[in-house]
Amino acid sequence: MSQTSPRNFTLFCFFLFSLISLCTATQQNDNTKIEGMFVFGSSLVDNGNNNFLPNSIAKVNYFPYGIDFPLGPSGRFTNGKNVIDLLGEKLNLSDYIPPFSDPSTDGSKIVNGVNFASGGSGILDNTGAVAGNVISLNQQIRNFEEYTLPELEMQWGNKSKEILPQFLFLIGSGGNDYSLNYFMGLSNSTNTSIEAFTANLITTLGHHLMRLYNLGASKFVLMAINPNGCSPMAKARVPTREGCIQTLNRAIHMFNAKLRNLVDTIRTQMPGSNLVFVNSYKVIMDIIRHPISKGFVDAKNACCEISKISEGGNGVLCKRGGSICENREEYVFFDGLHPTEAVNVVIANKAFASKFKLEVYPFNIYDLSQM
């Protein structure tokens, strides 16, 4: 009698579990009660806003970005769909969430939400200055309040506090505040401890959530910062080190722990609100530590050829016309920092349907959509 190898058995179990999760999620998303999403944050959730910004170097409107996306290069920092696209599908939204900066994003196009996120931006206003022109989280919320909200009220024929409880407000920001701010010596960080810097980020983010709540928002999704210390970019900057850059990961882990706590503390200040913390840090670290059992092969290298700093690049983004891996579904990282669509699928599935509180807290997005 032939015996099944441990690796084949593990892959079979992974496939079976994924199939069960997919069937459950498919059954669930027929019943969601969400009209749309408003998205704020950085490159992990940016749907193309930076394409329309003059003097911004944080643009990915070229191949190989979008090589697996139905519309081609669109400004998404991955090979295919990002987490926002995938969650939109699960919520039965009729189309992709349009970017705010696109001049055509107005009228009936905004009735299912708008994406305000900007690659390179952060929670702090001065984060991302090295990327040229980016839109800070503060300005993103201002754009929502001053431009989109009046138009939305006109389209719906109702006041914002009657409309917005039907929408998810997703915020994915913070990673650049470390990579492109604190660890680059900005924000007087040489005189600020990492603990004080992180506390300030959480306090500032809390103020932003209160701004949205006072406008009528009540359903929030807060995305953790990914383990950027394990990215090809971070490891390339410290080539003598083996494994992940723990200094960066420890700072991110501290932020994520405080962000999870914020879910409980701020809810008492926002009666009627509900918040979900999505621990994408854990989801990605689980893949990095056990890639084969999660259906991946390469958890260390970028799928695309990276533009080197010596060549005028930034060590993060794919090189225009550069080479690209063929087995993209087996890679964790598409470029020097951002995950592949395959990883985004795992994150979106977990965010939407996981019952494991170390992955989503205190409940998943499907449960949030029913409230």
Describe the protein in words.
Helices cover 37% and strands 9% of the residues. It has a 6-stranded mixed beta sheet with strand order 2-1-3-4-5-8, sandwiched between helices. Strands 6-7 form a two-stranded parallel ribbon. Residues 9-18 and 24-29 have low confidence and may be disordered. The protein has helices spanning 6-28, 83-90, 137-156, 160-163, 175-179, 194-215, 232-237, 246-267, 280-289, 341-353, 365-369, and strands at 36-41, 113-115, 167-172, 219-223, 274-278, 298-302, 331-333, 360-361. The termini are far apart. The protein is an alpha/beta fold and 371 residues long. It contains 11 helices and 8 strands.
Layout of strands and helices, then pairs:
Blueprint: H1 6-28, E1 36-41, H2 83-90, E2 113-115, H3 137-156, H4 160-163, E3 167-172, H5 175-179, H6 194-215, E4 219-223, H7 232-237, H8 246-267, E5 274-278, H9 280-289, E6 298-302, E7 331-333, H10 341-353, E8 360-361, H11 365-369
